[in-house]
Amino acid sequence: MPIGSDSSAEIGSNSDTEDDSVIDPIVEATEVFKEIIAPISTEQFFGTYWERKPLLVKRNSPSHYDDWFSTADFDSMLRNHRVMFGEHLDVTSYRDGKRETHNPEGRALASQTWQFYQSGCSLRLLCPQVFHDRVYQKLSILHELFGSFVGANVYLTPPGTQGFAPHWDDIEAFVMQLEGRKHWRVYAPRSPNERLPRESSGNFGPKDRLGQPVIDAVLEPGDLLYMPRGFIHQGRCLDGWHSLHITVSTYQKFAWTDLLAEAISGALERATTQDEEFRRGLPLGLLGFAGSAFGSLTAASRDDWANRRREAEEFCRSLLARLSGHISLDEAADRIACGQVRDALPPALDPSEASCSAFGAGPVWDARRGRLTAAPPAVTLKSRIRLVRRSAARLTGDGRLHSSLGNTRVFREAEPAYLDVEPALAPGVAALAAAYPTFLTVAELPIADPEDRVALAAGLHDRGLLLVREQR
């Protein structure tokens, strides 16, 4: 087998760009997102609102999000799945300016959970995709649009109550009202330093000055509230109405600073290896004149210390200038992408995709005849192939093909997985990544030996990474 070792391996459930029999995941993801933000276009959303300002969409269409989740689904989940307090479900309250969590230990059985609800506590389901197929399918495909992990929380709040203190989040939040009504107030960041924060805030209290809300509205079923990172918000149920909403989130720790951190780390490794200046020892006595205790030194206090500090700072800047020549955008992007592959939900395949993947193809047991059905045709040079998902596979410069196929619906439950790809075959994997979501024929893979092209395609298909269709 021309593909090398497999570090681990389970999935949840002529070129051709117009194969109507198999969905285009990017188109599918875009359609799911269009449904979320309609009637706002994707161009208007990303050009006007994304990371800039909140968006309120009032639809007067109660059934718009009916296929996402319901309180009946919540009840069924409690009764039929091992939902654990703290791990999957939080019980919260916000009364008299005080936010509290009331999680007991153990499993969240329906009887105890509903007692909390009846006493005025909010219920936050931290990972509905673990238990709910439709949520899982939608979040999985949305990863194809954003390129970043897409998660969700579900919030069920009793009438006339509030479960959380005012706060900001470190994610882009899409609040979709599913049932009932909730009164939301959204406040702009109080300073430029609070825009697009890296971490979620603590709880704000009654004495904190939040300013006038930029959005003050009641969400009804089918309505949407989008909030960029850093916008302070709070929601309270109206008297006589419960509230159920799902918050879809993305872009956590997915900023230029994250890419630069990876780029600088790699550049420093290369610079240290290739440039002697980076390996020179520190000046004698540096720690005696550099540090926070010495930051106020001036020429009037110690001429020699001040001069040596200045020389050290100038040399640091010169090394940083040289470091920029070692920056590799591709390497940094690979590191970020591998993190995303590790965090991703396993691909939720459409039936049209599953039928030509290792998870749906192959012989099937015929119970009536007591035997297997005929095996599908073998992979040939004429077979048309495509990566199962862009977000499910990433080839890096060391020849490793990182994969999310072994992931579970539980965040980071599985160990990272990869295949070792032989150097002669790596261009074939790269061609598939570049062509995605277009199908290529096996013959089009830029690998010298035709037998190796077939072997690569067959090997990747057997591991669930490729869709294979016969040439029409």
Automatic annotation (TrEMBL):
InterPro entries: JmjC_dom, NO66-like, WHD_RIOX1
GO molecular function ontology, one term from the record: histone H3K36 demethylase activity
The enzyme's E.C. designation: 1.14.11.-
Record's subcellular location: Nucleus
Signal peptide: none
Region Disordered, residue ranges: 1-22
Cofactor comment text: Binds 1 Fe(2+) ion per subunit.
Gene3D superfamilies, A to Z: 3.90.930.40, Cupin (2.60.120.650), JmjC domain-containing ribosomal oxygenase (ROX), dimer domain (1.10.10.1500)
Domain JmjC: residue ranges: 121-267
Function statement: Oxygenase that can act as both a histone lysine demethylase and a ribosomal histidine hydroxylase.
Protein name per the record: Bifunctional lysine-specific demethylase and histidyl-hydroxylase
The species this protein was found in: Macrostomum lignano
Source taxonomy: Eukaryota, Metazoa, Spiralia, Lophotrochozoa, Platyhelminthes
